[in-house]
Amino acid sequence: MSNYSYLDQVLNEQFLGNNALSNFLYKRILNKSLSNKSSLNKKHLFITGLARSGSTAILNQFYDSNEFCSLLYKHMPFILSPKLANLTSYLINEVNQKKERLHNDGLFIDNNSPECLDEIFWIKSTKNYYDNDLLEPEKIDTKFLRGYEYLLSSYSKIQKNKRLIIKNNNNHIRLKFLSDYFVYCDFLIIFRDPISHANSLMKSHKRFSKLQSQDEYILDYMNLIGHREFGKGFKKFIYKNTSNKNEFSSNSINYWLTQWIECYEWILKNQFFKKDNIQLVCYEKVCTDKSYLKKIYTNLGVNFTNKKNLILKNNLSEKDIKKLNINNDLLTLSKTIYEELISCS
User: Do residues 208 and 218 make contact, with C-beta atoms less than 8 angstroms apart?
Assistant: First the structure.
């Protein structure tokens, strides 16, 4: 992100920040959605789960099937103006060389890669978004759901009306309302071994905090697109009917393991997986069990064609786990929740 020029930074601020232009574009989406013919029978695919669950790898897996379109890096920073995003994407249609993400996780991207960019809409739709933790909403007004539908449908239309695939980890906290509204769409909740997952979150938090200290624009950019799951600008998720008390430092794996427990315990308590349009997906099984992967494709109506399993990365050995000084109660509880998630997936 330090490669962003001064002009890039100005455009990002104008089209994404809290100013007259971006606010106008957002309000135009809400207004146009009032007369928009519903496309709720379009089987778009939503991928969500706590950050670092493997959701991006699974996003890329499905996107590579060529059966989906998505929001792409080349649509930036014009996300709130799909037609302009489409026009500029043709003007700068050359594919840049793939480079590894700042996450340092072995995933490579270029300007044709899909990314979580729809959170920009929810920034505008959420009061005091930057001041608060990521709260489970009491409700989501229909005008926002309708506006979100219009935005997503617009990106489908400019890409040959393909099914749209949206990966947004923050959407898991809106899952009840999104799955009720987008009843004909499919939702995947990705989960992963809790210790490996929490360790990945901790490492990402430390890495991005360091990068953001070295380059302030990385923090500014991540705030603009709503990526606040880790780093200097991170906000924790707050769920109903959970303790939401985290006594650990954010530099401790126990902090992130507590967040994992609260997230997936909340998902189990709400029994989202019992809805016809929601599936729990175990990342480890996606990587190791081809029949499991094929079943997911079949359930989603996507052509399988001998897809390769994803590569399982960063899982920890028992020796590595012992070095992390994990709280025993958290370790036991997280393993219990993980096994229950597997049994429900």
Answer: yes
